[in-house]
Amino acid sequence: MGKTVIGTNLEKEQIEMNISDLSLRVSIYGILIEDGNVLLANQFGGFDLPGGGLEMGETFAECLEREYWEETGLKVTMGDIVDCKMNFFQFREEQPYQSILIYVTCKKISGELSKDFMTQYEKDGGGDMPEW
Predict the structure, then answer these.
(1) How many structural domains are present in the chain?
(2) Residue 47's domain is classified under what CATH number?
(3) Which of 56, 72, 83, 104 could form a disulfide with 130 if both were Cys (CB 3.0 to 4.6 A apart)?
(4) pTM listed for this prediction
């Protein structure tokens, strides 16, 4: 086995990953605060900030707008970048990632909370209504 790193899986267990197996994944997550509450997506067995993977050719703002719509039913605009993290992660039995996670503020433009626009992948992950 070549050089390895320690990462985590969905169950938050530490796992060893071969560097040659890693794929780079950039993700954007939006922080939306309303009446002192933060909106969280409800999927994959827990709660997290709405957001997800950047697709090729997509800007940060486009990614955030698409992911927010899919996971919450809300139209948002991107604000400032507030944090950036890096981790090693393996989701289910998929290829492991070296993940760059970018956290931004966002502002609601329109919409009502809904799970109707989730992708099949998100639905398969137990996607449910987002919550404040």
Answers:
(1) 1
(2) 3.90.79.10
(3) 72
(4) 0.90
- Residue 61: φ, ψ to 5°: -65, -45
Residue 132 resides in a domain: no
pLDDT at 44: 79
Spatial CA neighbour of 33 closest among 114, 110, 107, 129: 107
Is the pLDDT reported for residue 46 higher than 70? yes
130 occurs within a structural domain: no
Residue 45: the pLDDT is 80
The domain of 121 spans 4-125
Note whether residue 49 is domain-resident.
yes
What is the average per-residue pLDDT within 122-126?
A: 77
Q: Report the candidate in 5, 2, 48 with the shortest Cα–Cα distance to residue 27.
A: 48
Say how far apart CA 75 and CA 68 lie, in whole Å.
Answer: 7
